[in-house]
Design goal:
single chain; mainly beta; 0% helix; globular; four-stranded antiparallel sheet
Length: 177
């Protein structure tokens, strides 16, 4: 890992000082205030910082697969997701994690949280899932066969903009192309 203390002008090697750490990291996410951070990776790797990334601790293992992303929901609530549709939620700052109910096993790659707090997850095979209970359960809104959805944003003119393996796509509000 590399770290910059001057806004990215210079970079230094950084050691987390954690014995046996799998260093295949996929995503770093932060709370809105920038104080709490998670690093997510392979083999269930979750690292947490409570001081804006100055120091890190490894979260005790609760899953042995890949994490591709996550989101800080509010307060001490986090959601992480990844390989084969695995989604986990913590409401105690990452000390304990509970598996969310997800309708299938397609890998999940990105998320969007709307103004009402609904959580959308996207992934392989054109998958779009939605949770309206803080990430405890997800329902399927759409699934392929389609290109993987890598990111989504609401289109100010209506519908959704989706970044996919096949390029940028526009979906209607009901997620039909």
């Amino acid at each position: 890992a590399l770290r910059s203390a001057d806004g990215g002008k210079t970079w230094d090697k950084y050691s987390f000082g954690i014995e046996g750490l799998d260093r295949h990291f996929n995503k770093i996410i932060a709370s809105p205030d920038g104080q709490q951070w998670l690093i997510l990776g392979e083999s269930g790797t979750v690292l947490k910082s409570l001081d804006a990334g100055l120091t890190w601790a490894q979260v005790p293992a609760f899953y042995n697969g890949s994490f591709y992303g996550g989101v800080h929901l509010s307060g001490d609530a986090w959601l992480v997701y990844g390989m084969r549709g695995n989604v986990f939620r913590s409401v105690d700052g990452g000390q304990t994690w509970v598996k969310s109910r997800v309708p299938h096993v397609f890998s999940l790659l990105s998320h969007y949280v709307d103004d009402a707090g609904a959580i959308y997850l996207t992934g392989l095979n054109g998958t779009i899932l939605k949770s309206e209970d803080g990430g405890q359960t997800f329902t399927e809104l759409r699934r392929g066969p389609q290109a993987a959805i890598l990111a989504m944003l609401p289109d100010p003119k209506g519908g959704w903009l989706m970044a996919t393996e096949a390029g940028l796509r526009h979906y209607a509000a009901d997620f039909k192309m």
